[in-house]
Amino acid sequence: MVKWIKVKNNTRIDINKIPIIEISDMRSEVKAFNLRPIGFFGKEWGFGCVRLFVILADDANADLYLSSSVFGNDVKSYESFTQEVPAFHIFEREFYEQFGIEPLHHPWLKPVRVNQDKYPFFEMEGEEVHQVAVGPIHAGVIEPGHFRFMCNGETVYHLEIMLGYQHRGVEDMMLKNPSNQLAESICGDSVIAYNTAYSQVMETLKAINISRKAQLIRKMALEMERIAVHIGDLGAISGDIAYLMGASVFGATRTLVINTTLEMCGSRLGRGFVTVGGVNYDPSEEVIDRAVETLNKVRTDVDRMVKTMLKNSTVMSRLEKTGTVSLEKAKDIGLVGMAARTCGVDLDSRFDFPDKWVEELGFTRKTMNLKGDVNARFKLRYKEIKESISMVKKILAKLKEYKNEPIIAEGVNNKLTPDSMVISIVEGWRGEVVHIAMTDLHGKMTRYKIKDPSFNNWYGLGLAVRNNGISDFPLCNKSFNLSYCGNDL
To answer: Is residue 489 in some structural domain?
Structure first.
């Protein structure tokens, strides 16, 4: 792989050392490598040129491979990567939308975000075929998204999901005024994951080393976020199958978790907890002891409710074999995170790109034999809740060894290292949150790229509802619980 450079998560990359190769050579090598894409984005490169950066993940070895290709101002197309590696489909669609460089023979070249005018919906014909349109305006607190169902009676043949109604310009805002407050506001249910990824990018660019104490507090906060959202989602799934006892119990139990986070940092969602250079809050021993006691109760309550539900034949009839995505399809389209793991794709950035605490605290990857249906997504959440509670308790015990360490690094400067790129991957509760930053020769940030796991996984929801009843869609949708705002950057 001489035309690529091998890099690690959260390390500085000298932009001048990133290879530039012909796009046709890159396409051939990507096919041969058999590695999955986590980055495929462009940047204006002067004189009307566009430079395409491609990042591939070698999860088995905790390595990232990076290369690039330059399109002259007279080059407006290339042969699509998606034909050979389907996981590139969404990346190429975004690149085309932003820079107008067409991936020729792309099988599904549709808009990602700029799509409200004359969207090319998939069409079916036949006397029994009808369409059902839902959104973009929904009841409750659901964000804007349009869902177009092609049905034969009650059976869904195809679901097309059209997003892009929120034109926030987050990546541009990151260039103009980067901050922890902006980072944690990008995706409100993944405050810790986004804030951690941003902070790690900035710390690498500023050559800041944070204390062991701060590292552990961040890791604890990330797992608390995972526990809280997973419990909330168990409640949402319960509600969608009209199992109101589950919805009530899980709702109350989630409150115990987020109130513990509130006690630690003043925000139930963890806002203001993480900052560049470390963390802003240092939980006292009394708070830590109460947190452990609360988590013990949470585990007991979740255990009791889940086991009761899984013994209920009516519950199981709604969860099993509903909204199934096969292992083959999950790999093809590039599912990540929790959605991928429920199909048997063993991706988890906590273990694929581990920090030193994974080994030191004895955290181990535990897999399950799951079938990619709603039942799998329910059970995986339950498993991860228990695992994360165990992880948090180990972290809190370890924290006491570093009680005299600072929570924030001293002498934090505002200068970014010039001619640099940093890639930061954090396993949020949905899956990998990827932040990438680039600086120019003066140390000014010139590109900030964000990838939410929902970017990979929305198409998986579309596949999940095929051949299901249309009334199963809300349940399938809740079982994925994807982010609109994480997609509509």
So the answer is: no
